[in-house]
Specification:
Chain lengths: 206, 361
């Protein structure tokens, strides 16, 4: 077992453990944090495959932005923990069925145990590149030449989704008070203040 | 120099296996980066108190020195560190203990790890990673977890308010920051920080700040917002929510948050100088009157000088600007900075097509 293999197994174990943590943790905030950890170890595995652009993009997008907002929401929710855990046993068989399906598919795709179970066949078969190989450049070249149309379509779908999501939140609320900064900046003294001229008066003594 | 090293040390070194030798060399480099960095962090706190003191016509710390000499108060950061080390770390009884203790680590870890790819001059860099810029961006975005987890795990209302503020603010400004970096990528054609600096070679006029002044301003101001510094320090907001996310922290646990904040300031300053002001390159490059003089040479002093200037700017902002209101921060991030960066990316696209400035070649 080389050093790379050791790193692979360490992060795989971390990935599996944190993925288990996501579904078994009692507290939803802990679940979300376990999900962050599993994204992180997943990105470490991608780094081993020399996919450094995808690995760092995974951390940047999912860990740095998506999960922050996710955590943000989960922290504010008042979740009834007992109610949440009620369905666990009931839905367990369905979950186990899908998990087995996924495992089957994965074994079907990468399963080549001719070299031994602990010998990581895909890592050895993957092409090893030199130090000057730029994964980012290779990815960019493919995306903007061979796959330019699917890439553009994906971008447009994302744009539509963003606009739809913004429209969904833009309901008019009657009771909200909001400020218009441009109006605030434009305010002059005369809009707020009226100076009244008054004669000096003397309070009459008794 | 090599002949002065006694033979037995070389033999001892060669006796190690090669893997261990590499590991030891990398560890040595990490120590060479982190020890000066942590010293710099300690003295930036002193510098901040001194600078703001003079700006407000005070003297600042001037008592604690070494061996009975006050030395302008230079012993202050060390005295502070010793004091914080000996203080008790109080864990609130209803707090989530593990997350409460992990939070400071999560906030300082990324701040230090990002230094792995920072080049100090042409040769000095720990890891010359191809996607270095992306790595730095990813790590600075992880830093927010320390704040959010600290806020939630403290089980305190002030802390959670601050965590929510920090989360929304950092996500908002990260987008503007990322877009500003897209402009830098378009000009340099590389994600490698060393290559980005080399793309600015040729004196002051070819630095990216000249061609991307709006992006530079957006990047640096977003950097101030990302580090939760004044005038964007609503996450700390001592006038409303006491100290924000670290209100329940004491002793060294608090000090670690403090260290992370200052390490991030230095990091943002270093990145700004690398990406917009040519890093270690000299502004007088190619001046005939300075031919051969050290001022015209590229050196680490230029890099440190530029970085120090930006650190000073951070302190200057704190002494000058009143704190933004929260909705103004959000408005600035989403409605001003993001449109500005998008427009300038288009302008740059036009410049690339017309072959102006750095794209002339």
């Amino acid at each position: 077992m080389t050093f790379t293999d050791f790193i692979f197994f360490a992060f795989s174990a971390l990935l599996l453990a944190s993925a288990m943590g996501v579904i078994t943790a009692r507290n939803p905030v802990h679940s979300a944090l376990f999900l962050v950890l599993s994204f992180f170890s997943c990105s470490a595995l991608w780094l081993l495959l020399e996919a450094e652009f995808l690995a760092i993009a995974l951390v940047l997008v999912y860990v740095g932005a998506v999960m922050v907002l996710f955590l943000f929401i989960v922290m504010m929710l008042d979740i009834n923990l007992v109610q949440m855990r009620e369905g666990f046993v009931r839905y367990l068989p369905v979950g186990v069925f899908f998990a087995l399906c996924l495992v089957g598919i994965m074994i079907w795709v990468v399963g080549d145990f001719s070299a031994g179970v602990f010998e990581v066949p895909t890592l050895q078969q993957a092409v090893q590149h030199g130090a000057d190989y730029s994964n980012t450049k290779a990815l960019g070249r493919v995306i903007y030449t061979d796959y330019v149309l699917p890439f553009e379509i994906a971008a447009v779908i994302l744009l539509v989704a963003i606009i739809a999501a913004i429209i969904l939140t833009m309901r008019r609320r009657e009771m909200t008070k909001y400020q218009t900064p441009s109006k605030q900046v434009m305010v002059k003294r005369n809009d707020r203040l009226r100076i009244v001229k008054m004669e000096a008066t003397v309070e009459e003594s008794e | 120099m090599i002949e002065y090293i006694p033979q037995w040390t070389i033999d001892f070194w060669n006796w190690f296996p090669v893997d261990l030798q590499t590991l030891l060399i990398i560890l040595g480099k990490i120590i060479l980066i982190l020890v000066p960095l942590l010293l710099a962090v300690a003295y930036v706190t002193y510098f901040e108190r001194k600078v703001i003191g003079y700006m407000q016509v005070r003297i600042g710390p001037n008592r604690v020195g070494f061996f009975g000499f006050s030395l302008w108060g230079l012993g202050q950061p060390i005295a502070d560190a010793v004091k914080l080390l000996f203080k008790e770390i109080i864990i609130p009884s209803q707090a989530n203990k593990y997350l409460f203790l992990i939070a400071p680590v999560l906030s300082i870890g990324p701040a230090l790890a990002a230094w792995a790819v920072i080049p100090f001059n042409r040769e000095m860099t720990l890891a010359n990673v191809d996607a270095g810029l992306l790595y730095v961006l990813a790590l600075t975005s992880i830093g927010v977890y320390g704040v959010i987890i600290a806020g939630w795990a403290s089980n305190s209302k002030y802390a959670i308010l601050s965590a929510l503020r920090a989360g929304a603010q950092i996500v908002a400004y990260e987008i503007a920051m990322g877009f500003a970096l897209v402009g830098v990528l378009m000009a340099s054609g590389s994600l490698n920080l060393g290559a980005i600096v080399e793309a600015q070679a040729g004196g002051f006029s070819s630095w990216f700040i000249v061609w991307m002044l709006p992006l530079f301003l957006v990047y640096f101001i977003s950097g101030v917002a990302e580090t939760n510094r004044a005038p964007f320090d609503v996450a700390e907001g001592e006038s409303e929510i006491v100290a924000g996310f670290h209100v329940e922290y004491s002793g060294m646990a608090f000090a670690v948050f403090f260290l992370a904040e200052y390490a991030n300031i230095i990091l943002i300053s270093a990145l700004t100088s690398l990406m917009f002001l040519g890093g270690w390159l000299s502004p007088f490059e190619g001046w005939s009157s300075l031919q051969g003089h050290w001022l015209a040479e590229a050196s680490i002093f230029w890099f440190l000088g530029k970085t120090s200037f930006f650190i000073f700017c951070f302190l200057w902002f704190r002494a000058t600007f009143p704190r933004y209101r929260y909705d103004q921060i959000m408005r600035l991030g989403w409605k001003v900075f993001i449109p500005v960066t998008i427009v300038w990316i288009f302008v740059e696209g036009v410049m690339v097509v017309l072959k102006v400035g750095p794209w002339a070649g």
